[in-house]
Fold each of these.
Amino acid sequence: MSAGEAPTTVRRDGGVGTDASRPDGTLKVTGEFAYGSDLWMDDMLWGVTLRSPHPHARIRSVDVGLALAVPGVFAVLTADDVPGELYYGLEIADQPVLAKDKVLYQGEPVALVAADHPETARRACARIVVDYDVLEPVTDARTALGHGTNSPSEDLHPEDPPVVENSREAALLRPEGNQIRHLKIRKGDVEAAAAAADVVVSGEYEVGMQDQAFLGPESGLAVPAEDGGVDLFVSTQWLHVDQQQICRALGLPPEKVRLTLAGVGGAFGGREDLSMHAHACLLALRTGKPVKMSYNREESFFGHVHRHPARLHYEHGFTRDGDLLFVRARIWLDGGAYASSSAAVVGNAGLMGVGPYVVPNVRMDCWGAYTNNPPCGAMRGFGAVQAAFAYESQMDKGAAALGMDPVEVRVRNAMREGSVAPTGQVVDSAAPVAELLRRLQAMPMPAPPHDGFHDADLTAMPGGVSNTTHGEGVRRGVGWAVGYKNIGFSEGFDDFSTARVRLEMTGGEPTVTVHTAAAEVGQGLVTVQQQIARTELGVDRVVVAPADTAVGSGGSTSASRQTYVTGGAVQEACRRVRSAVLARAGRDDWADVRDDLAAVLGDEAVEETVIWRHRPTEAVDPDTGQGNAHVQYAFAAHRAVVDVDVELGLVKVVEMACTQDVGRAINPLAVVGQIHGGSAQGMGLAVMEEVVVTDGIIRNPSFTDYLIPTILDMPPMQVEVLELPDPHAPYGLRGVGEPPTVSSGPAVLAAIRDATGQFLTRVPVRPEDITHP
C-alpha cells in the first residue's frame, strides 16, 4: 500500500530565504508521485455513492433489495446504518452523513455500496430505488432571506443545528431560518457623510459560482483495524477536523479513528469539508475489508463545496478632491444547502468589504443564506474575492465621475501602517498599498502589435487560434486593482499548530525529523518546514514525517496560514531542541556544539513538541462589527492588459503584472509560483470560470463545459515581490497564497471595461455581455 508521501529527506543547503528544491517536485512532473487515487490494498473493495438527482425533495422510501442481490456486493448502507450522530459539519452540524428524510441539493448522498469491483458497485448503485416527493427549490439567496419580492414557503433547516467545537468565529450566531449569518459593520455617521459628499456613485454587482477545479479528484482508502477502529488514508486539508467529524458519525473515540494524509492533487479550499471520508469508513467497518473511494470528475463537482455566488450593492461617496467619505454596502452570499464555512466567509466578505482604503464612515451588511443550490464554502480568497470585484469597480466608477486617474484615486485613499480599518482595528505593520500601485505604474507596458492589430500574430489575438479575427474589432484596455486579505483564522478562533522536532545521529550524521499534521496540498509546506529546521539547527539532513493524527493538530491548510502558524511551531520546537542540546553539552555557542553533535548526542535523541499560537484575535461586536478581528493583513495589486474583440465578445489577457508584499520570502521561487497560480484563478473567474446552476441543477459538471485557464490563456506576468517584515510574525513573513486571487480578477474586469467602454458588472464576463450590453 502507498499512502502517497514523497520522500522528504533532502541533503543540501537550503534554509530560509533560499530557492530550496521541493522533494515532491520531480516525482510530480514525471508522473511518479502517488496521489490519493493511487492507493491500493490487496482484497480491497470499492465504494460508490448514490446521489439525489433533485435539488429539493422528500424521501418517501429507499429500497436496497435489488442492489444487495448483485453478485460481488458486500454492503449497501443508508442513513439508518449510521452508528453515531447523523449530522456533521465544519462549523455547524447541519449536514447528514446520508440523507434521511429530505434532500436539499442535487448530488446529495443518499446511499452507499461496497463491491469487489468499481463497475459492480456502480451497477448495484443504479438498482437502488428511491421514492422522491419532488419539491420546489429555493435558489436565490435574497428570496431565501425574504429580502426579495417573494419569501420562501418554509425554512430549509427547521431544526436548530448545534455550532460545533471548531467553529472559527467565537461570536458566531446560530442560524435563524434560512439565514446562516448576518454581519453588521457600523462606523461613523454614514447619513451625514452622504449629505456632505460631492460625488456619490452606486452599483449592483454579481459574482458567479467558481469551482476549485483541483486536478486530483476526491479519494481515499479506509482500512478496518483489529481494535475495532479504522485507519483512513485521505487527500484532505485538515486532518484533525476531519477526524472529529468522522468520530461523530462512527460513534468512535479519536484513538480509534486514525488519519494519514495521502497525496493531494490540489485543494484551494475544496477539501476542507468531508467528502468520501465518513462513507469509506462506514463501509470498511461494515464489511471488515479495506474500502477505496475515488470520485470521477462529474461526481467531484457534486462532492465538494464551491465559491459562494454573490450579489452586491455598493454606494461610495467622495469629496471633489477624491477623498472617500463613506461606503454603504449590502452583500448576499449564497451558501447553498449546508453551512460549511459560510459564517466565516460572510465574516471575511464583510470585514474586508471596503477594500484596503481608509474610510471614516461605513455601513456594511453581509448575509449568508441557505438555498437549494450546491453547498458553498472555502475557496482561495474566501469572501474577499467577491467583495473586491464590487469595491474595485466602485473605485473605477468614482474615478470616472471625479475625472481622476483610477490609480490616483486609489493612492489618495490607500491604507498605510497606522491606518484604522472599518472594524476599528489599527493596521500595526506595513501596509504598502500606495507603493504597490506606484511600482505597478513603473513597470513597462507590453508592446502594442506592430502597425496595429492587422499585422499582429493572429494566435495572440482573442479567438486568434480559431482564426476568427484578423483584428478588425479588437480593442486594447488596461485595468488596475488592489486588494487585501486577512491571514489566518480570525474573530477569536483559537488558531494554533503543533510541531514535534527530533534531533539524533543516524548513520553517523545528524538528522532532524519534523512531524506535524499540517497538510501539504501542493503549496510547498514540506520544503518550508525543512528550510526552517535547517536555519534554526544548521543541520542539512531534514526529514519531514508523513502528516497524520498521531501528532497534535496543525490546523487547516487554508487562510494562507500554514507557513505562519506551522512555520512558527517548527521554529519554536527547533529552538527548544537547540536549548536542550546546549544544556546537555554545558555550552552557550550553538555553532561550536553543532560541529560536535555526535559526541554530545551519542545514541540518545533530543525531542521537543510545541503547540504554537499567534497573537490572539477577538470576536467583533455583533451590532457594530468593531473589534481586533485579524492577526495580519496581506496586500497585492495587479495591472491587467487585455485585447477584446468587441464584435465577437472574445477576450485575450495580454499581460498581468503583480506587486505583492510578502513580509519575508521563505522560498522566493515558490512565492512567485503562488502569485502566478493565484492570479490565474482570479483571471479565470473574471473571464471564463462558472458553475452554471439553473433551478438548483448543475449544467456543466465537467472540464469539457467548466472552463479553466490553460497555457494558451495564461499571459506573461511581471512580478515584483516586496519584503517588508511584520514584526509580529515568524521571520517577518506574511501569508502569500490568497492575496493575488483577490486583486487579479478585478484588474482584468477593469481592463475589459476600458477596452469596450462598457461598465460591466457581472463576472465571469460572457461574450453576450460585451456584444449586447
Amino acid sequence: MAAFLFTDIVGSTARWETNRVAMQDALRRHDAIVREAIDVHRGRVFKTIGDAFCASFAGVGDALGAAIAAQRGLGEADWRDVGGLRVRMAIHIGETDERDGDYFGPAVNRVARLLSCGHGGQVLVSGVAADVGSPHLLPGVGLRSLGMLPLKDIRDPERVFQVTAAGLQSEFKPLRAIETPPNNLPRQASSFVGRQTDVARVEDLLHAGPLVTLVGTGGVGKTRLALAAAAGMLADTREGVWFVDLAPLSDPALVPSAILSALDVDQASGAPDIAMLVAHLKPRGLLLVLDNCEHLIARVAAVVSEILANCPQVSVLATSREALGVTGERLHRLSALADAEAVELFAERAAAVSPSFRVNENNREAVASVCRRLDGIALAIELAAARIRTVSLDDLSRRLHLRALTGGPRDRQPRQQTMRALIDWSYELLEPRERGLFCDLAVFAGGFSLESAAGVWNAGDEWEVVDGLTSLADKSLLVVDASDEPSRRYRLLEPLREYARERLDEGGTTAVALRRHAATFCAIADRGYVEWDTAPQPDWLPRLERDLDNFRAGLEWAFDVGNDPRAGAQIAGGTAPLFLRLSLLREGIGWCERALEIADDLTAATRARLYYGSSMLYHNQGANAQALAAARRAADAYLEAGDERGLTRALSQVAHHLGNDSSDAKAIAERALRQARDLEDRRLLATTLQRCAFVYSPGEIAQARGYFEECVALFRTLGRDDETARALGAWADAESTAGNPAAAVAIAREAMDLAADDGKVFVTNVLACCYLVLDDRASALPAAREAFQMAERSRHPIAAPCAILYLAALESELDARAAARLAGYAYARLRAVDWSLVGPDLVIDATLRANLDGALAADEVAALLAAGAQWTEEEAAANAARV
C-alpha cells in the first residue's frame, strides 16, 4: 500500500515554444520547489516525465502536506518571465506492484487519470485517499467534495475532493470530466493489467486505417485488449463504440443481424440485413468491435468489406485467431504477456480469490516460473491464479497441467471457463490434415524447424508441411520465430502442446510420432557431427543448441521408452561434440556410456564416435585415464571401420593423453602426423599438431612451439578464428607450464582477441594464472574475476574451481579466512573430478597455502577448508563474487 502524489505543469508546451530560455530557468526553480516539498514530507520521487513528478509516500497525510507546501511555494514564486506557471496535482492511495524502484498497477493508473482532469493550482484527492486522510487533516486544511467524476479507461466513476488550505486557490472551473459517448462496452469485473504498449499500438493503427484485427491464440487476451483500446477511442468517435460478441453465433448468415442488434436497431421492417446494416451505418461515425470472428471468418470478412466500402466514417476493430483477409486490414498479432506483466496479472487475480496472497521477494520467482510455464497466456494465468484459493503456490507449480486450468467465472462463455475448452474451440475449426499435423507437433521439446516437422509428420511433400505450418500459424495455434535466419523456428505454446499430446495419445499414434522424432534427430545429429568433424560453419553451435531439448527427448525415448538403444547410440555419438562445446560434460558422458552398454550390437563407425566423444568429454573433465582408455578404443573402432581420418584423430588423442611420461607417445604422434599429412587435410593436420605438441616435456618447449606455430598458421590460412584461438590457448598453457608466463600472457591475449565467448573460458584461466605467477595483482584480479564469471556461466567442472582457487590466492593476502573457505570449495570440486594441479597452478597453490599458514593456525585452516568444501555452487559463487 502506498500513497501517491502526481504533479504536472499546465500548458507547458506552449511556454516552451514561445520562450525556451526562460522556461529552462523556470523549470529548474519549479523542480527545486516540488522536490523540497516532497523530501520534507518524507516522500520519494520515483519517476519524472518532462515537467511531471511522480512521488510515493507512506501515508496520505504526508502526500497532502507535500502538495500544500509545493502549491504554496509555487504560488509565492515569480513566474512573470514565462507568463505565469500553474501546476495541477492529484493524490491517491492503493495497492501496487513495486519493481526496480518504479510502481505499476491500477492505483498508479487512477492517480494519473485523476491528475489529467484537474486545473492549474488545484490539488485533487481520490475518494479512498480522502477517507484515509480525513481523520488526520491538520488545522486549516479541508477536503471539498466535487462529486462523482468518470475517468478515462476506469470502470467506476471516482469520488473527487479538492484540498482547501490557506495560501491555495479555492475556486476553479468545473472539472474536466470526460463525457462518455454512447456505447455498449461491457463492464469489466477486473482490472486490465499490462499491455499498455499494445493498447497504444492498436489506437495508432485505428487512427491510420478503418480496419484493425487483433490476432492471437485463444486466451492470450485479445478481447480484453480490444475493450481497452475501444474505451480509449471513445472520445475520438462521434456516435460511440459498439461491441458485438460473435462467439454464440453458429449460422454465418446471422452476422449482420447480430451487429444490428448490438446497435439496438429495430429489424422488424424485413429489409435484407446487410442492406439495413449499411444504410444504418452510412451516415454515422462510430467504431464497431467484432469479437471472436474465427468460426465465421468468411462471412465476417464479407460483411466488413461491405461496411468499409460504403460507410466512410465507420471503423472496425476485430478479434480473431486468424486474419479476416480484407483489403486494407492492419494486423496486430498479440503475443504472450511479458514476465513482469504476467506476474502482475497472477498477483492481482490471486489476491482477488485469496486476499492475503501477495507477490514478494520470497515467491516472485516461483510465480514467474508458473507464468513462464503457461507461456504468458492471460487466461491460463487467470485460471491458475484462481487455484490459489485452495492450493499453495508450491502445490500449484508441481501439479500445473491442463486439468488444473479450470474454474473460470460462471458468467464467462463455457469455452473460457477451462483452458481445455478454449483450445477445443480452435481444434474443432481445423481441417483433418491440420489436426494431424497439430497433434504430431506435440512430440517436439521446445522449438523445431521445417525440416524436423517434415520428418515427424511424414507428409511426403515438404510444401504440404509448409502449407500446414502456415495455416496453423495463421490460426494462432503455432508461434513463428522470425528472428531465426536463414531458417524459421516454430513452437507450440505449452498449454497447446499439452493438449495436442493428449489428442495424440487418444488417437493411438504417439509411438509412431515419437519414433519418427527420434529418427529425424538421428539424421540431424549425424549431419551435425560430420560438419563438426570436417569444417563447421560459424553458426554450428547455436544451430544445434536450439535443438538440444529435442536431442535429449530423442535420447530419453530411445533408451527409456522406445526400446531402441541403437537410435540412442546414434544420437549420443552425433551430439557428443555439442555436449562438449556446451560444457555439459557429465551429461554427454552419461549418454555415451549408456549407448556403449550395447557396444557389441553397434557398427564400428558408431562405436568409434561414441568412444572418441567420450574421450573428448573425459579430457575436458580432467579424467585423463578414462580419456586415454576411450581414445584407444576409438582408434581400434576407427581402424575396424576403415576410417583413416577418424583413426588419425584418435591416435593424436592417445598421444596427447600419454603425454611426455610415455616412450610410446612420440611414436604414436609421429604416426598420426604422417597420416594427417598423407590425407592432405589441412584442418585435420592442424588439430593433430595441436594435440601432438603435448608429447613434449616442459624442457622440450622448443619442439612443442614448432608444432604450435605450424598449427596456428594452418588455422589462420583456413580462416578458422575460433580454432586458431583454441590452439593459441593451448600454446599459452604449454608456455606457462614450461615456466614462460610472460610469453604465455602475450599468446593468451592474442587468443582472447579471436575467441568466441564459449572459447574464452579456458584462455581467461590461463591469463589469470600467468598474472598470478608474474605477481601482477592489478592484472590478475580482473582476469580471475572474468575467468570465474565465464566458467560459472558454462558450469565447467575444472575451469570454475580453478578460477575460484586463483581468487582465493588473491584474497589470501587480505582476508585469510575467506580465502581458506574459497580454497576448500575449489579443492573439493577438483577432487570430485580427479583433477590434479600441475605446473603454474602448483606454484599458485603453494603461495596460497603459505599465506594461510602465515595468518592462521593449522587447525583453523583445516576447519575453514572443510567448511568451504561443503558449500553449494550458489554459495561458492556468492562468496567468490565478493573478492
Amino acid sequence: MAKHIRKSVTSPARSQAAWPVWVGDPPPLAAPFVAREGIGHGVVGLPPGGMVVLTEADAAPGQSHPGLGGTGKTQLAVSCARSAWRSKDLDLVTWVPARSQDSILTGYAQAASAIHICDPADDADSAAAGFLGWLDGTSRPWLVVLDDLRDPADLAGLRPRGQAGRVVVTTRLPAESLAGQGCTVVRVGAFSERDALNYLITSLREDPGQRTGALDLAGELGCLPVALALAVALMNNRGQSCREYQADLARSRQMADTHGDGRLATVSAACLLAVGRAGELCTTALAWYMLSLVAPLDEGGIPAAVLTTMAASEYLRAAASAAPTADGWVADVLRDLSRVGLLTMDTHSTAQTVRMHRLVKEAIRQFIPPAALEAAAMTAASALLEAWPDSGCPPELGQAMRACALALRPPASGLLWSPAVYPLLRRVGHSLDEARLVSPAARYWRELWEDSVRTLGEDDARTLHACDRLGPALQAAGQTGEAVSVCRQALSAWQQKLGSVDPATLAALSRLAEACLADGRHAEAVSLYEDSLAACGSALGPGHPDTLASRTALAAALRAAGRPEDAVTAYRRAVQACESSLGAGNEQTLAAMAGLASVLQATGRLGEAVPLRERILREHERALGEAHPDTLAARAALASACCAAGKTKQGIAVYTKTLAGLERVLGHDHPDTLATRGNLAAACHTAGRFPEAIALYEQTLAGRERTLGPDHRETVVARGNLASAYHSAGRMLLAIPLYEQTVSDCERVAGPSHPDTLTARANLASAYHTVGRLTDAVAGLERTLADCERELAPGHPLTVAISDNLKVLSA
C-alpha cells in the first residue's frame, strides 16, 4: 500500500488579535474641529481598495512658501480615522508617520506585531512585507493613514493594497509628484470664509463679545487654519476680541518687517504676538530659548524626556534671571508655550509629546540669529544623546529619536562631526540596527561612511567605525557579496592603522569571516576563523571570551563547509575550553554544547546527542530554574533529539512536560507553547497514538486559522497534517475532503509547483488508493512525479518517495 508523506511545520504560531485594533499615535484632534464641505469627517466617496491623497492646494498669488502646510490636512486625516473608528466599520486602523522609509517600515512592523502576523525574530522589513501581504489578502476592513509623506520614493514597494481596505495619504508635495500612484487627489487649501468664521465663533465661546470683527480677522489671516489656531489660543488666553487681535497683528507685522499676504508672513506676525504673551507668563528669554531648542528638532514629535534632560535644563537656565528651583519648571515653560498656540502637547504619547507645526517652526527660525540657532542645535544633540535609552527602546520612541537627530543635520551639520557630538550620528545607526530596520540601516551606514570619508578622511577612526557597521548592515540586508567587500576594506584599514593584534583589527577579522560565511564562501570563512582564533589566542590568551567565541564560530563554519567530523572535533574543543575558563553553566559554554549536540544529531550520532541534550537541560535547570524560558527551550530540544533517536516514548514525555511548563509560564497562546503543542502532536502521530495526535492537530489547526487566517501557508500545512492523522487513523471520510481542500489551498497560496503542493497531491493520491480509487491514485502520482522531476533537484527526497509509492501501486 502506498504511504502518505507526512509534513509537519513547527515554526511558532502567534497569539490572537483582539479585534478591532488601532495602531499608531496620531496628533490630537483640534477642539473645535471644523468639518469642511466636500471632505468632512469621513473618507467621502473612497471605495474599498482606494487611496486618497490630501495635498496642498495651488499656491495663491503672493504665497512664496507653498509646501509649508498649515491648511489642516493632518487634522482632516485624524478626523477621518477617528470617525471611521467610532462607526465600528473597521477591524484595523493604522496611523503611520510617513516622513521617511524608516518611519513607514516602523509603523508597518508595529501593525504586524499588534495583529500577531509576524514572528518576534522577524526584522522590520520582513514584518512590513508580511503586513502588506496580510492587507492584500484579508477580508477584514482596514484603514491605513500615511501622514506627511515627504518623498514618493519612500512608498516604492510599500504602498498598502487590498480590496478590503482604504488608504489616506497626507503630503505637502505637489499633486503632480504623485502621478501614477492610481489615487484620488484632494487639494486642501485654506478654510472658506464660512468655515473660518465657524471656527472662530465656535472657539470663542466663553465671551460672545470676543467674536466682534471675526469675519475681518478671518480675512486678515487668509483663513489659514494654523494662523487661526494661533489667534484663537492668544485671544482666549488674553480675553481679547477679534478686532483687538487684528489691531495687534497689524502692529506685529510692522515690528517683524513681514509684509504681504503670504502664508509665512502672516504666521510670523502671529508668532511674534504669541511669544510676547508667553514672555509675560514665563519671561521672554525663557520663551525664546525653549523655542530655539525645539525649532531644530522634528516637527513630527519630540519626546518630552529630551527637553527635560540635564543638557536642556542647563541651556534654559542661562535664560533665567534666577536659577529655577521648583520641580517641573521646564514642563511649565512648555505648557506656557502651548497655551499661546506655539506648541502642542500630547500627554498620551511619550514618543511624540511636543509638536511644533512646520509653518510655526519656519516663522520662529526667522527671528533666531544663526549663531543662537546653531548653539541650540548643539544642545539638542547633547539632550538627545542623554535621553536616548541604552537598550529596550520602544519602536515608536526610537523612531522619534532618530527623526529628531536627523533633523539636526542641516542646521548643525558641521559641528555634528565634532568628537563631542558625532556619537549622536552613530547612535542613529545603532538604533536602526537594534530596530532591525535592515534596509534603512544599510543605507544610513553607507551615507554616514561616505560623509565621513569626505569630512574626516579615510583613516579617521570615526570613518572606520562607520565602515565597520556598514558591513554587518549590508549582510543583514541580504547584500552579502558587498558586505564581504566592505568588511575586507575595513580589515585592511585597521591593520594599517593599528596593526594585526589590536582589538579593533581582531573584531574586523571576525566580521569578515562572518560575512564570508553568510555569502557562502565557506572555505574562506574557515580559513579566516582559523586566523581569528590564532590571533585572539596569541593577543588575548586562550581563555579570553573573544578567543572562546572564535572557537565556537570556527566549529559552525566547518559544519557549514560540509566538514561535519571536523566540526564535531572543533565543537568538542570549544566546549572543553569554555567549560575550563567559564564553567559548565556559562551561557557561552551552553551555546557551544548546543552546537555540538546539533551537529551530532545531524550526523546521526544520536546516542551521543541525547545525553548531551540532557546535560544541557540539567545545567539550565541548575543555573536558571525550571521555569526559565531558556530551560523550557532546552527541554524542547531534548524532546526533539529523543524523537529523532527513536526514543519516541521518552520524547513524548519530555514534550508533555515542556508543554505544561510553557502553558503555565507563557500562557496557552504564546508562540512557543503553540509550536510545542504541534511538535507533541507529530510525536504522538509517529508513535501511533492517533486519538491524541488528532486532538492536538485539531487544536493546532484551530489556532492557525484563528491567528493567521484560513489561507496562510502555515494554516494550510496544519490542515494537511490533520488530514494525515485522520488517514493514519483510518478515518477516510474526514481525511479525503481535508486532503482535497489542502491541495486546492496549496495551489492557490503557494503555487502548483511548490513542494507543499506536491506533497499534498501525493498524500491525496495515497488516500485515494486506501479507499480503492486506484485509477485516481495512479494518475495523481504520475502527474506529481512529473512535476517533481521538472521542478526539484535530482534525487530530492520527495521525488524518491513519490516514485517508490508509484512503483507500489503499479506492481
